[in-house]
Amino acid sequence: MMDVFVAADNIVSPLGATAVANYEQVRRGVSGIRLQPEGYFGAVIAEEDLNAWTAPYQLNGYTKFEQLLILSVQDALSHTGISLRDERTAFIVSTTKGNIALLEQGAAAGPLPLQLFATADRVAAYFGSANKPLVISNACISGLLAILIGQRMIRAGQYDHAVICGADVLTKFVLSGFQSFLAVSDKPCKPFDAARNGITLGEGAATVIITKDRTSLKGNTAVRLGEGASSNDANHISGPSRTGAELSAAITTALWQSGLRPEDMGFVSAHGTATLYNDEMEAKAFHLSGLQQVPVNSLKGYYGHTLGAAGLIEAIIGMRGMMENVVIPTAGFSTSGVSVPLKLSNVPEQRQMAHYLKTTSGFGGCNAAMVFSKMNV
Amino acid sequence: MNNGNAYITSSCIIRRQTVVKNGATVFTAENAALPEFLRSLYDRYSGQYQKFHKMDLLSKLGWAATEILLQDMPMDGYRPEETGVILANKSSSLDTDERYYETVSDIASPALFVYTLPNIVIGEISIRHGFKGENAFFVSDTFDAGLISGYVTQLLNTGAINACICGWVEQYHEQYEAALFLVEKEARGMALPFDEKNMRQQKEV
Q1: DSSP strand pairing (A134-136 vs A89-94)
Q2: Which residue in A47, A207, A267, B58 has a CA-CA distance of 20 to 30 Å to B9?
Q3: Which segments constitute the Beta-ketoacyl synthase-like N-terminal domain (chain B) (predicted)?
Q4: What residues contact A38, with CB distance under 8 A and at least 6 apart?
Q5: How far is A346 from chain B (nearest CA, A)?
Q6: pTM
């Protein structure tokens, strides 16, 4: 299989506007989750931060969703020679709800501004993208699936590089929906904890630029994409599998195709939404996959659930943790509340590692898993 | 890596109150509004399936199209994880998004909220038929046969899946169109070579 590498990355979130700033904040244990004026906990980007970040650019005509994507892609592109103007560069956008805030504001003149392809087109036009953006909207696995699809398209020879970005904004639309499911935590979320009682929502954007071209890589070490897979529970549209077998199947495929064993993983970056059912399903899936001796973390305690951005944000923090041989602790976790033992911790762990595994699961019964590996350039 | 050919073994196109199966018109219901039309497809092509009545229009459309697509095409020769579902549309779940948001000022409806993601139709199809393989939902302004055929071919060639339900499921207000294809490595049914051109031709019949 052709090797595909990570050439650049970015995260725009309440914790900062670069991947480095975000990783440093997470390493210091800083969470972006705050009690919001409306009375719920959420990881919301402060208006003054967004204004400061967008000030150098002409972004007044763009929605907040589009501004987040543009900031993220702009910064990621600045770290590499890879260009969106190149016909050999794919542009992939991951989101669940795009400009849905316009529906709340009654600000959309007709359906077009709400269409995901139209908002992606606007962002692509900003960068003069040679290719039409490819939009992936597959619930909470969208971000990780977008990386997997980018890798597959490069391997199929369609492109040499891919700029893969994702974003979602914390809206009343989404908050009210999870509240209607009684799925929103009354405290900052507590992934895998005995006292967990739901998700905390977040917002943000992230970008990963991948390439088959080793000469596009900087430094002595880089991240090589391992194998990945997606699967469906075929069980329920809003509740996860009762056994975890389908997430486990995706994990097993990803490991086996990578030629790796469970014990080769430095850690598993779980989806870990902190709902009762999701975390329990994941715990079972990790056991079925032979990962019970591998540290597991969830980053939802830092970022909340950022939906279409989550897989990208968490993959990036995971890659940076792997490069530093650190297992990031699970913020909000204190006592295990899943039925099978996992190696969870709320303190960082130094651990030599060459690989880690990222997993995601979402509504519609979808799951995805992907291996990321260190390599010497 | 298997670079062997794949085939469109079945196709189902639904638009303008008409169902076209493998290139032939098999059902028309003139002047039927979409909800009634979808109900008539359920009555004609499906046995009892209570979940159908809870679905939003997008899921009903994709679900009904798959029922018709798979008529006389048993899938029990495949293990669950061998069949993928790869779909695309234009309007994501925007129709249901609007319906859901109308409930928010009163009592937000969890039953509608769960359908405010386009890939729920993949979930509904997967539940009905027990498909557990690869998933992806793409959004584009028009049907991109090259994208779908390229991606599904890649999944088949690398052995990620051995069969796929793929195509287009679009619905916004009264506008709708489904164009679904069963793609397999072994020829059966209509056995058209699986490529961009044949996909597009079938859709435009």
Answers
A1: parallel
A2: B58
A3: 51-174
A4: none
A5: 32
A6: 0.98
